Amino acid sequence: MDRRKFLKKSATLSLSHLGLSSVLLGGAPLFAASLPANIVDFSATQLSQAIRLGNVSCVETMQAYLEHIHRYNPSYNAIVSMVEDDDLMAQATDADEAIAKQSYRGWMHGFPHAAKDLTPVKGLRFTSGSPMFANRIAQQDSALVKNVRDSGAIFIGKTNTPEFGLGSQSYNPVFGATGSAYDPALTAGGSSGGAACGLGTHMLPVADGSDMMGSLRNPGAFNNVIGFRPSTGLMGGGDPFSRSLATSGPMGRNTQDTIVLLISPPTRPS
Fold first, then answer.
1. 258 falls within a domain
2. 100-110 confidence digits (pLDDT tens)
3. Is position 43 annotated as part of the catalytic site?
4. Which residues in 26-57 are b (16+ Cβ under 10 Å) and which e?
5. In a domain, 257, yes or no
6. Catalytic residue among 191, 192, 242, 248
């Protein structure tokens, strides 16, 4: 059996043991009393089910996250190249209309999401943290981004990274430094520091990053979230080093969220 197919099949078979089948396949309804008071405090798996079951709308979700981002991101500098609020709210409205028509796009339907600024998202700035590419606009999605978009996510911007991802912190001359979720005066680690800080401060429900020598694991530890480096290519690659030692991987506030992002059906390059 192909190695990638074996890994994916093994992960999928583990769903029932981890209680994650209901997230990807639908399951028992949520009860309002079991949900946090603030949408940004929902875990990604809770948010997924709440949106699918109509407990919260995509518009409510986007509004809650945008308010939270505008309040805290100026202090932490985790999310960069933000899309305009009006555009994002229009996309959230479209996502709600899709649900009303029973057109559910995937477990991340209506999620606000920001990809690490080492991977292209069509139509968004793609700086790689370098002044040389400060005004570059991505012309297409990476395989990783296509997978996340196909799962229903709405891209709100990018997450900060050191220039070309080279460093164990998240500073670059284009956007500056990203601070730790616990003290913005301290480093968030790197190179997926923007993603980890965005998670730790609840500006994102789940995140992606990449890792060559600790770039998911190091910022995960610095921000008290999970950064997991999977087998090479399992999440579709997507950064400049994906042909060498680095690979894309998931980040989450808890184990369930991290695993669901990891095993959501990947899109392979043609």
1. yes
2. 999 999 999 99
3. no
4. eeeebeeeebeeebbebbbbbbbbbbbeebbb
5. yes
6. 191
